[in-house]
Amino acid sequence: MSSVRYGNLFVSLFVIIVLTACSTGRSNEASIEYVARPAYEDVTPVAQLTATPISLPEPEFFISKSTVPHGGTLLISVVGSVIRGTVTFLNIELPLTRGDRSYYTFVPISRTVSLGMERIVIRVVYSNEVEFEEERIVQIVGREWSFYDFSDDNFENPTLLSRIQREDEDATLKATFDRISPVKLWKDGPWLKPLHFDALITSEFGEERDYGDGLTRYHEGVDFSADVGTPIYASNSGQVVLARQLSLRGNYVAIDHGGGLYSAYGHLSTFAAAEGQMVSAGDLIGYVGQSGLSTGAHLHWEIIAHGISVDPLLFTNGANGF
Question: What b-and-e string marks burial along 193-228, b requiring 16 or more CB atoms within 10 Å of the CB?
Fold first, then answer.
């Protein structure tokens, strides 16, 4: 009986030792640190994405007339995804200006340019930096010019014809009209005559004038006969850049229409607009007078494109093609 108890005790002690050993082994396994490794490595090649070029429609080129007279003005425009461009005419490069639906410029035909066929080259750059070039041929035709001898006329202030006075005024006008505003300020549609009635034209554009003492000039605008105090209105919208007294042109208003195009109004009695003011077509800008070099009350009206005087009446009668 006692031997059975000792046997059972021995078995119990053996089981306890085995369990303790197993427990200690599990504890030792738990203290082992394992280094984590990815289950797999991604060896898939990265796709190289290449943008597909967008095909843009080629530009459309427009020119207002193929035949233009001395004193005329061409309107050249380009429709498309243009970001910049130029027009070259008679070796003079003119920048294109961004308009409402196109890029454009006015090309002046000087009174003194040679007659015949001339080449116009239009170059534009697209938004994708692709360049386009278009060449057009225009015919320049002559006009009959009148002549007037002013040498015997009695001007109120003949000293205004002095060389210094003329050069000072010419320098002021050149500094003004050589500037090219890179925005379109004029509005589409017919240009307006500056007087609200059918005034008598006393001197036409391009008239050759002899002032005596070897001084010959051609008339750079159109003169309308009108009484002192007659209202004068803007021919189109823009910004007034000059409203001041000059020697020959007297009280003078100049309006910047954008893109190198200006209109101007001379010999005013008083101003109704100030420099820096924005005006719309038909806005009051001044009153007729006889200030400056003048033999009587009248309005001297000019249009200047890229520094060159052109015939303003061709803007109002549709002869320029726009």
Answer: bbbeeebeebbbbbbebebeeeeeeebbbbbbbbee
pLDDT-based confidence at residue 3 (cuts at 50, 70, 90)? very low
Measured distance CA(311)–CA(321) in Å, rounded: 13
Positive/negative CA dihedral, 23, 25, 28, 30: negative
Q: pLDDT exceeding 90 applies to what percent of the chain?
A: 70
**Candidates 2.60.40.10, 3.30.530.80, 1.10.4160.10, 3.30.460.80; correct CATH number of 60-141?**
2.60.40.10
For residue 64, give the nearest of 258, 318, 317, 322 by alpha carbon: 322
Only one residue has tokens 């005329």, namely 72
> What gap in Å lies between CA 186 and CA 238, rounded to an integer?
6
217-268 pLDDT, tens digit per residue, is 789 999 999 999 999 999 999 999 999 999 999 999 999 999 999 999 999 9
Cβ atoms of residues 286 and 274 within 8 Å: no
Cα separation, 309 vs 193, whole angstroms: 17
Q: Check pLDDT > 80 for residue 302.
A: yes
Does this model's pTM top 0.90? My answer is no
Q: Which two tokens stand for residue 1?
A: 């009986």
pLDDT at 215 exceeding the cut of 70 = no
Quick one: 147-316 is in which CATH superfamily?
A: Glucose Permease (Domain IIA) (2.70.70.10)
DSSP string, 67-103: EEETT-EEEEEEESSEEEEEEEETTEEEE-EE-SSSE
Give me the residue spans of the domains in the chain. Answer: 60-141, 147-316
For residue 281, the tally of other CB atoms under 10 A from its CB is 17
Tell me the average pLDDT across 206-223: 80
